[in-house]
Design goal:
globular; six-stranded mixed β-sheet; Rossmann fold; 2 domains; disordered N terminus; Immunoglobulin-like
Length: 535
Amino acid sequence: MRKIKIAAILMAMALMLSTLLCGCTAQTESMSFASAPSAEYYEPMYDMAMDTEAGDVAEPDWNTEEYNYIKENDFKAVATSPLSTFSADVDTASYANLRRMINQGRSVDPGAVRIEEMLNYFYYDLPQPEGDEPFSVTYELSDCPWNESTKLLMIGLQAKKLAAEELPPSNLVFLVDVSGSMSSANKLPLVQQAFRMLTEQLKPEDRISIVTYASGDTVLLEGAAGSEGVEIMAAVDSLTAGGGTAGAQGIETAYKIAEENFIEGGNNRVILATDGDLNIGISSESQLTRLIEKKRESGVYLSVLGFGTGNIKDNKMEALADNGNGNYYYIDTVSEARKVLIEEMGGTLFTVAKDVKLQVAFNPAQIKGYRLIGYENRVMAAEDFNDDTKDAGEIGAGHRVIALYEIVDKDSDYEIAIPDAIYTQNGDTGSDELLTLSIRYKQPEATESLLLQYPMGSEIYRPEMSDNMTFAAAVAETGMLLRESRYSGTATYDSAAELIRSIDGVIDDEYKVDFLSLVNKLHENPEISTDISHE
């Protein structure tokens, strides 16, 4: 059933022998914050963007990176648009990619700034779900830090965390882009390090296959048991880059193998590692979307890992993940690979709820207007909320979904433009409720959705933001400034940094401390700004 190319193994053995003779060993740098006096004076021990363990990688002189245009969400009048509907999103690629751009000192493409992915990158102090619920739901309302005339609503979903021993058996297909564009040190060598880490976490009952693609596709390993780590590592180490990029052909083969090794009740997933630069066969975003929509019907999920700089096709990788029951991460460092594939392995690999949709119904008697911050490419039509045939986002074990709304209440002097309409609500709802949050989701193998509803009144308002909301507000401010948002109000990089520094215990979270160092870089280097020429 399983087959390994002999040449690949010989090449791997030669590579390992060469490594031993050269005395080269990979070393993993660690971070410690015990001696840091405070987050305000913290200087990172190393630049996470350069921690590739494959050598420092200079930014190429050319740039053919591709991002989708994002039209920022505007304020909507509740009188004419009382419902706000969107799909859940747990992707984090945008933040890691922005970190890479900022650390390289290059201008930021506005299409790369997806605020929801920045928000969902970080850990929050959210309660674990109770009973059989796949996720907990929290919400809070406070004053908006960048606009004194509005309020800020935060909604948080926290999926149940599962220990590695609680995860079901996995049937994983590593689909690796080995085309010529993947030869850089921060591409294929980093892919190999990432997959070595994941291989070390496998259980004996897991099944691993490896498919590569360049000008064509090759099945390097099929159905190996998780206990056969030596063979899996040898196959990973044998990978070399060269040729064109026939990604669609590789996708077809990977899904075929995943279906042949399908584990009932298990985690069946293709993990695609690529820079997204497909140039042979099906290569346009729309063609790839149609292809992956068909594949998701197989019950096989998809994780997309983006690598590299200079030519990454973020638009194509996001389209594959969004339309293939998948998630999308950008791996710029060994540290990021460890976060995605080790620390958050349950969330990356195991889905606890699929087709998760959120709908907020605002009471026109209490709220004049609202604006969803981020999620621009996840907005859905109101009628799609109750339609179980409409695809939406997946949530993995331990994942979180953070959503922020800027809200204009009935007493605010903030003006909301109300479009002409023949019929509008008169605001006489007979209720003191501010809004109702509705959530639909499906169990991983179900076809019918379940409904949760949470009415909220004025009692959820607090004059001071919690630590969770304070950090989320700082992330939102930074994202709006990077996008040069018309709604950023009084926000500055300094005000975002002040919000972070005001949080007790922030020094204990290395990812939040690293974010603070990025915000400080943006404050100190105004030349690192949005490149509107890409818009």
